[in-house]
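#dry-run=false #mode=assembly
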Amino acid sequence: MVRATDVTGVLHAVLTCVTAGPGLGFNRAAIFLADAGGTCLRAARAVGAGSAEEAFETWARLQSGPQSLDELTRSPAEAAAGRDGFNALLQGLRLSLEREVGGNPIVDAFWERQVVRVRAPEELDRLPPELRRVFAGTEVVCVPLVARDRGLGVLVADNAFSREPIDDQRLQLLRILALLAGLAIDNARISQELQQQASELESTLNELKAAQEQVLHSERLATVGAVVGRVSHEIRNPLTTIGGFARALVEHPRDPAHVARNAAIILTEVEKLEGLLKEMLDFTSPRPPALRPADLNQVVEALVRVYREELGAHGIELEVELAPDLPRVRIDRDQLRRALVNLWRNAVQAMEGIDRAHRLTIRTAAVDGGVALSFSDTGGGVPVGLREEIFMPFVTTKPRGTGLGLAVVKKVVDDHRGRLAIGGEPGAGATFTIHLPAEEGR
Amino acid sequence: MTRILVVDDEANQRLLYREAFERAGFDVVEAGDARQAVDQVRLELPDLVVLDINMPGVDGLETLTRIHDQRPALPVVLNSAYGGYREQFVSWLADAYVTKSSNVGELIGAVRDVLERRAAQRRGTE
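#status=ok
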């Protein structure tokens, strides 16, 4: 079958139907199509012999084995072999679409949208000279091709070699065929346009995809660069100390007091590195939370017992306000504890180096549908522009640290189906609040 | 004796540098943060400052400008765990930039270079 989206294929199929013996049996047929600007008709395709000799040869060959119409229409290249002379005669021919009285009958058929028959020899004089030779001494019919009330072109057919007169029945069939052909050509053009648009869209899409990949790739590289910079800084500091004291041990081995002390320092720094490694692994390979009902106040009290003393060393006052009527929540104690330790450390570090009296305030409260737990410090606060970014891994405003602390907090709160909010006046301190749904709310 | 002020927030690193510089024949004073550093510059009158540019609180770079405000001619050697900013910092107020490593010899070498350069400059202007 001919693909309906292929204009050339459709033209060939139509012309084959017009010319083939099992079809309408015209000797020759050609289709002229109007160009996009409507200024001329172009010979688009023709089927038939170029000369009487060629025609007789073809007929002789066709008589040796019958061919069905379907076979004939199948492939323009194959089927047209030996029937291509007419196409060659007309190739490249253009007819001006300008109208004149008593002008070109093909152009008349186009504008009038009516069949024009050229019978008498003198009528042939109305054809342009190059066509006059082609159609000399034959009767020609010009049938307009129309679709959606628009002229597409003209189908021209004749019996140049058999000289058989064109009867009304043949002409009627030719008009019906031309009607269908117009629709088929129009469809094929629309499909071709759609296909072209689709392929343009596809290539635009591919370009966009490529650009997006490029952006993602550079973002990934930038992120990797930031991570490597941050992590290598965190590794280099303890490594410098470890290496330096190890070197001192090698260079001055006979100093027993220093040997023990240097070994202790090396151990402390190795523990720092191990802590860093644990922090990074915790972030990159966390286990899913094992949620169990718990009293959040108890979790906070346990945390305060362990870390309270550390605050005194930093000269930070601690205030704990726990709401007595707190609904129970479903939490993974280990993970939530880690998040709270990170918030605690974050608060302490935020207050370090800022010269004023400091206080860490921890509050719990029953809120709509759950509980709120907040950590408020009196440090530098978080600039409004950084309040979303600060929870991203490896983002930090501090000179030390991996930038993973708050990212871990965010991850844990998300895993608990909670919400994490950040508040406080920039310059006066920050408040981090964790909202967790109450146990009943599950 | 030439006096070096070592500014670093890590106590263990200060100790490492103190001992290495003392063995190399320097007199060493220490500061753990920016404020202490500025105080020590005023009180101990060091001949050179070894400054970690990444300390909590006031950033090392701000410390550098504060030291510079106080004693514009005091040579400063930046000592950092970051390796990427060498050109940027050296062209600034500091005399040299050393990436932290376990080989304190590099840092001592840089300190000696800076001191010699300064001494040569003084001889040239006399």
